[in-house]
């Protein structure tokens, strides 16, 4: 029923208790989990998780916060992985100007090249856009891709509309559940329902109800979905169906694999 469009299952502490994490997701009717890679080092891990658990699907790409571990030649290796393993998306790719700005040129180089890979293979992208949405939009206008998901969206209504016009869905997760997250909640209530997908970003970005160091996990996407449906005044089952359709539109290969 529920789909977690962004979860790092191969990260600690999730990977140390993976069977329990998957069972908890199943109990909460989470039947698809997208695991994006971050660099060459974890591509094999996300593929193995997908082979092991029927709920798991992978995206392949280089995360903007882990670029020190890769070099330009690795783009050729990524290209070969895409050909061999046919991911549901290219990701997690993008730009991050919140953590650091001194390597912006490097970030843009890898983002642009990975957009070109997405264009070549006609794949959607799963994008990291923290504090960099306008710059991301500039690159998307230069390199046309088939859309995808803007992960953890927290921009303006105008930026949201520009991404929607370019074929993107917007990812909402645990940050929205904080009572002080009024901007995110206003976005969640006001943006077109057809533009929304859900995510956890587990083990990070825990929802407000996880306190005292409890870590996030994919099962929480169900409660996040209920929270969102309450914001919109929708029946949760009706909302889950809408979100599922949205996700399949954003990730067409997932739709084929889930049927």
Word description of this protein:
The protein is of the alpha/beta class and 259 residues long. It has one domain (2-258): Metal-dependent hydrolases (TIM Barrel), CATH 3.20.20.140. The chain contains 10 helices and 8 strands. It has helices at 18-27, 40-52, 73-85, 104-121, 133-142, 157-165, 182-190, 220-232, 236-250, 252-258; strands at residues 2-4, 30-36, 56-60, 89-94, 125-128, 148-151, 168-172, 196-198. The chain has an 8-stranded parallel sheet. Helix 3 packs parallel to helix 4 (104-121) and helix 9 crosses helix 10. The chain is globular.
Structural topology:
Layout: E1 2-4, H1 18-27, E2 30-36, H2 40-52, E3 56-60, H3 73-85, E4 89-94, H4 104-121, E5 125-128, H5 133-142, E6 148-151, H6 157-165, E7 168-172, H7 182-190, E8 196-198, H8 220-232, H9 236-250, H10 252-258
Parallel strand pairs: 1-2, 2-3, 3-4, 4-5, 5-6, 6-7, 7-8
- Structural class computed from helices and strand pairing: alpha/beta
Kindly report the spatial arrangement of strands forming the biggest sheet: 1-2-3-4-5-6-7-8
Distance between the termini: 13 Å
CATH topology name, in short, is TIM Barrel
**Unreliable spans:** none
CATH architectural type: Alpha-Beta Barrel
